[in-house]
Amino acid sequence: MIRRATALAATVLALTLLLPATSALAALSLASSANGTFGVTLNGVDQTPAFTFRVRALNPSPYVNTGYHLTISAPALTGPASRTIATGAIQSVTSACTAGCGTATANTVGYPLTIPTGAPVTFFSTPANTGQGTYRITPTVSLMVPANARAGTYTTTITTAIVAGP
After folding, report:
1. Which of 27, 47, 70, 164 has the largest count of CB atoms under 10 Å?
2. Strand partners, 37
3. Cα distance between the two ends of the chain
4. What are the C-alpha distances in Å from 48 to residues 85, 91, 132, 166?
């Protein structure tokens, strides 16, 4: 009889959020509110933990009335011995106006949305004549950690941008 031993090990997944220093449009800006870090205890079974991160979109008066959208991309998470884990998928996004609220945003993006490793994709979009003010935008991301993941710290850099127009 062969007995398989399952080792339990903690894997820490660290995410760094990069934002452009200045927007191409002076009226629109984007800032990070928090970096995401979370842990997973490896147990020999595929796991799908979820985490959130926040960005702040600022569209002050006089505001860009063409609407705006937020884009995202990230390379795979890299860990021990150059092993990788896919960056996951955005499951949902919430938004809340925190200051200078005008017409509320009406996000037009459908989920789930895979976070790409190449060209950025839109993860939040507000139509023309909406989104005035400062909005806290919080994506919830799920990440598939395979059963055979090696214990250690895995990192990636999530890049987001704000672009005028829906």
Report:
1. 70
2. 14
3. 62
4. 12, 12, 35, 31
Residues in the chain, overall count:
166
Q: What is the C-alpha separation between 105 and 102, in angstroms, rounded? A: 9
Query: Is the sign of the CA dihedral 24, 26, 28, 29 positive or negative?
Result: positive
Could you check whether the bond before residue 62 is cis, i.e. omega within 30 degrees of 0? yes
pLDDT (tens digit, 9 = 90+) per residue, 32-84? 655 666 788 888 899 998 888 888 888 776 666 788 889 988 888 888 888 89
The 10s digit of each residue's pLDDT in 92-133 is 999 988 888 877 788 889 999 999 888 899 999 988 888 888
pTM exceeds 0.90: no
**Domains and their CATH numbers in the chain:** 12-164 (2.60.40)
